[in-house]
């Protein structure tokens, strides 16, 4: 069975701590059924969310032409959202590595956008902790950065300054 560690190695990255990638793929439903396993991925999800916020803010700050603060907030919300993260998870094939409990698997958890988005964040959190920001930046630039252009129309509505 292929794992996130295999994906990292196939993409030219040297993994330092394989257990963190295993944890990134442990949904709470799986951990509840397998109490001897590692922690669920919720803490890594928290870390990944923070990495995505910093990365996306950096991308938006350097975007040309420059955007106002409200426009950046709107565009970040359009890009760093559940549906986008779930789609990226599927595009990268990371969803295949997700370990779910029997019930969650039977009820379609592997296709549930909220689970896929959370899993994507957990994977980014694991990559950040194991590899650092540079590798996250490389992966996100390749797969997520195009979403900024895709979502950026001629007019990004600025809700903060709209009357």
Which regions are unreliable across 5 or more consecutive residues at pLDDT < 50?
153-163
If helices are DSSP runs of H or I spanning 4 or more residues, what is the number of helices?
10
Approximate strand percentage: under 5%
Instruction: Supply the helix-strand structural class.
Output: mainly alpha
Q: What is the terminal-to-terminal distance?
A: 55 Å
Could you give the count of β-strands?
0
Radius of gyration: 17 Å
Shape: globular
Mean pLDDT: 90
List the helices and strands and how they pair.
Layout: H1 4-10, H2 18-24, H3 28-33, H4 42-61, H5 69-79, H6 82-92, H7 102-106, H8 113-131, H9 133-143, H10 145-151
Can you offer a commentary on this structure?
The chain has 163 residues and is mainly alpha-helical. It has 10 helices and no strands. The protein has helices at residues 4-10, 18-24, 28-33, 42-61, 69-79, 82-92, 102-106, 113-131, 133-143, 145-151. Helix 2 runs antiparallel to helix 8 and helix 4 (42-61) packs across helix 8. The protein is globular and about 50 Å long.
């Amino acid at each position: 069975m292929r794992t996130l560690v295999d994906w990292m190695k196939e993409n030219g990255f040297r993994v330092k701590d394989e257990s963190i990638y295993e944890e990134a793929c442990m949904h709470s439903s799986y951990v509840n059924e397998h109490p001897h396993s590692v922690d669920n991925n919720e803490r890594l999800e928290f870390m990944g969310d923070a990495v995505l916020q910093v990365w996306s803010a950096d991308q938006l700050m350097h975007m040309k032409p420059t955007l106002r603060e409200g426009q950046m907030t709107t565009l970040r919300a359009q890009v760093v959202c559940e549906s986008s993260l779930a789609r990226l998870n599927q595009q990268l094939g990371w969803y295949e590595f997700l370990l779910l409990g029997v019930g969650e698997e039977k009820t379609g958890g592997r296709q549930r956008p909220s689970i896929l988005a959370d899993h994507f964040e957990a994977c980014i959190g694991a990559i950040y902790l194991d590899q650092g920001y540079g590798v996250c930046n490389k992966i996100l630039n390749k797969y997520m950065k195009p979403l900024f252009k895709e979502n950026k129309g001629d007019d990004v509505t600025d809700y903060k300054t709209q009357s």
